[in-house]
Amino acid sequence: MNTENLIIIGSGPAGYTAAIYAARAELKPLLFEGERLGGNPGGQLMLTTDVENFPGFPDGLLGPEMMEKFKKQAERFGTRIVSEDVTRVDFSKTPLSVQTASGAYAAHAVIIATGAGALWLGVPGEQTYQGHGVSACATCDGFFFKDKHVLVVGGGDAAMEEATFLTKFASRVTVLVRKDSLRASKIMQERAQKDPKISFAWNTEVKEVLGDGKKMTGVRVLNNKTNEEGEMTADGLFVAIGHKPNSEIFKGQIELDAKGYVVTKPGTSATSVEGVFAGGDVADYRYRQAVTAAGTGCMAALDAEKWLAARE
Ligand code: NDP
To answer: Which of 35, 57, 242, 293 qualifies as a cystine partner to 14, CB 3.0-4.6 A?
Structure first.
């Protein structure tokens, strides 16, 4: 088997930035972007609309458009892209091994940039009605709620963004917040609170998603201040309560923290295994921005390049 210099797993801002740097350093990286179904080529930005905070784009641009640009730039310098999911890795020996459904690959160095995905509430009915009212992506599913009443769960920036976006379609949006305050940034809070279509239900926890067997019809809620239970009628429920890292396949192979994030040595992208580096949301609980993902993806490429050079 041919041993690659560098395999990059993931195709969000971190993966593509790592690829741009590695390709320009003539490492001829091989990047696994994930399958269209199941995997998520382009990562979370494929699920957003306008990106207004990526420096260098004063007029903003669409998430998918931005990822297309990242990809083009990575390909321009010779990155080879494989549209498959990595299903297994073996980092216990050298060369490092990376497997997909159709084959096995070997590499001297690997960059993990698999990102993160939406968290769910884990209440009864939530899974049953996924795709039938329950969603974690307003950009993907908002369109189906024209003139309907929808609920959004969460009090962070994501919840404010989802709620605001949903007002384009829905007649009414109610944000269910488990505390009596929001965690979102001031500007996002204000935008949502000023919107006449958006209202807030405070101290409100979703206990169950209710439905008629085919689609959701509402939720059972608990007011955690008064301990009163009640039902709310709604056509949709958008869950926006945070994310979890896509690190399942690395369990037992490299050090992960209690939440499943890849642990990197402070100030570097090095993981607990020699030759394995990580960048982007899979290793970042705190910042989770496109620009920080791109930044740590760049760090991973520079660290990998240095490591490969020292090895020679
Ligand atoms: P956050 O972790 O910031 O917020 C999660 C929210 O969900 C909190 O209000 C939390 O409540 C609530 N929550 C968590 N678990 C539950 C639960 N089981 N039931 C009910 N509510 C729950 O996540 P976000 O996804 O909002 O944001 C992540 C990061 O991405 C942040 O750094 C944010 O700034 C950034 N971001 C930026 C955007 C932008 O600038 N355009 C858009 C979206 C995200 P509690 O407060 O009680 O813990």
So the answer is: 293
